[in-house]
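Progress report, Aim 2. The chain analyzed during this reporting quarter is listed below.
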Amino acid sequence: MTAYRIFEESIIIEDKEAKVFGIAAFDISGEIIALVPNITAVREKAEILLEKCRRLEASPCQLRDIAEDYIISDEY
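Predicted C-alpha cells for the chain:
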C-alpha cells in the first residue's frame, strides 16, 4: 500500500524565501517512490490534493498527472 504525505520546502523567489508544498508517495518500508515538489504555496490546496490521492488510491506513477490535473482544475 502506498502512503501519501505533504512535504514543505523553502525556495527563493526574487531574493525572498517562500514556503511551498508538494506531495510524496512512500512504499510500505517508508522509502520515497514518487515525488512532486512545489505544487502550491497554500497548504490547504496541498491537503486537498493529498486527500484526492488517498481517496483515489492513486498509483505512485499517476502522482504527477493527478497533480497537474488538479492545478489546472476548478478545484485549485
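The first strand starts at residue 3 and ends at 13. The chain has a mean pLDDT of 94. These observations will guide the mutagenesis work planned for the next reporting period.
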